[in-house]
Design brief:
By secondary structure, the protein is mainly α. The protein is 71% helix and 2% strand. It has 20 helices and two strands. A hairpin with a 6-residue loop joins strand 1 and strand 2.
């Protein structure tokens, strides 16, 4: 165990810390999280349209509500790339220290992203009309939006750091001054992406979006869309938590570009009445972390109802309400689970077992897959599955509570017994005195 701990502290933890503090990944993460409102809005309406209970469907159709409800996913999850182009540049500018130009950075990124999107001619109407292809603003364009926004941030940062901007005199309104400050870098950025668009038009890919989708996004989806890769990253996340580093914040930004695309695709599939194929997503990760990292939902119930020691009886009263909403920092740092060799095995094993059984049930068609909505991990078991479009997965989450309890039980009883004996000895000594 000492060799393992030494290896983790000397080799693994420094790398993980650098990844966790990487400004590019922080920009992607903060930009994506700022879109939670849009994401949740589209997902909720997609879930409503996925309900196939005939009386409910007939009720919606009788009032024309189904058509109205379908409008919402079309302008939320189906345009996720468009929103990410702005939000990542906006939030990322703050991460890179140019927050005073955050809004203009976001707008320039949005303009650049739209500039790269192909324009088609609609000859079905007279006169013929130029149109943007909506596919290049949705899940297919997530990686493109990320790359464009990060490039825009770096160019903006360069111009700001070198003071290559137009300075307006005092007395000019701040909004006007900010617009002129961003004018020179905006011209350079837009011209750069216009040249990129022209160059790719002469290639077999025709657009930068198609190039990125074919060369980067599809292979990346194949890599992180596999269950072995999911388990590997899950174990890494748990080990990071064991050493006191926020595992999810380190690992999820790596997965986020692909999983956001999955989320939008799954929402569209559900809305059209299809079957979800992207089953490795945020929903499965939330299942693995039911109750918090370490799948500690079962542990908090055991602690609350079955503790013998006063220490864990009192601690269980705090941990249970938090654990139901997947908040388990009190357990990790207060129990503690961090650097606790006695709980390392269930802390790593339980998420793997819970998610593996869930994955197997999905593959066998016993439960429906999750849509994979970002930001729903704090919902209680059952409700989490329902919001993610799968009542059957929600029911399995209740079963997962018992699975978690079974795995955690022998390990908790061991440390609870130890605490009880220490308390009894201390009370005996006090009584003797």
């Amino acid at each position: 165990m000492r060799k393992f701990t030494h290896f983790m502290e000397e080799k693994f933890i420094p790398i993980a810390t650098r990844i966790s503090n990487n400004k590019l990944l922080k920009s992607i993460s903060s930009g994506s999280m700022s879109l939670l409102g849009v994401i949740m809005l589209g997902a909720i309406f997609s879930v409503i349209t996925s309900i196939t209970w005939e009386p409910f469907v007939n009720l919606l159709n009788s009032f024309g509500l189904l058509t109205i409800i379908n409008y919402v996913p079309n302008v939320t999850t189906n345009l996720i790339g468009l929103y990410m182009a702005f939000s990542i540049a906006y939030q990322g500018s703050k991460v890179f220290g140019i927050g005073e130009n955050a809004f203009n950075t976001g707008i320039i990124s949005l303009v650049s992203f739209v500039l790269l999107s192909p324009i088609t001619v609609n000859e079905d109407v007279m006169p013929a009309t130029n149109m943007f292809d909506g596919a290049y603003f949705g899940p297919k364009a997530v990686i493109s939006a990320i790359i464009v926004s990060l490039i825009v941030i770096q160019i903006m940062k360069f111009f700001m750091s070198k003071n290559l901007t137009i300075k307006m005199p005092q007395g000019v309104p701040q909004m006007v001054s900010d617009s002129f400050t961003s004018l020179i870098p905006a011209v350079v950025i837009v011209l750069f992406f216009a040249i990129v668009k022209y160059a790719f038009a002469m290639t077999p890919y025709h657009t930068l979006n198609d190039f990125i989708y074919s060369i980067i996004q599809i292979p990346l989806q194949s890599l992180v869309g596999s269950f072995p890769a999911f388990l590997l990253l899950l174990v890494i996340s748990q080990l990071l938590w064991f050493f006191g580093i926020h595992g999810s914040q380190t690992v999820l930004p790596i997965l986020m570009p692909v999983w956001l695309g999955y989320m939008a695709e799954n929402s569209a599939i559900i809305a059209s009445g299809g079957t979800i194929t992207n089953i490795i997503n945020f929903g499965l990760w939330d299942l693995a972390c039911i109750g918090g990292s370490g799948a500690t939902i079962g542990l908090v119930f055991i602690m609350f109802f079955m503790s013998k020691s006063k220490r864990y009886k009192a601690f269980g009263k705090i941990a249970l309400p938090c654990g139901i909403f997947s908040i388990n920092e009190p357990l990790i740092f207060g129990m503690p689970l961090m650097l606790n060799v006695m709980t390392l095995i269930p802390f790593v094993l339980c998420p793997v077992v819970v998610s593996s059984i869930g994955y197997l049930l999905i593959k066998l068609g016993i439960i429906a897959p999750y849509i994979g909505i970002l930001g729903t991990g704090s919902l209680p078991p059952l409700l989490h599955g329902i919001v993610n479009g799968s009542l059957s997965a929600g029911i399995y989450e209740l079963v997962a509570v018992f699975i978690s309890a079974l795995i955690w039980y022998p390990f908790f009883k061991m440390i609870d017994k130890q605490a009880y004996e220490e308390e009894s000895k201390l009370e005996g000594d006090n009584h003797h005195d």
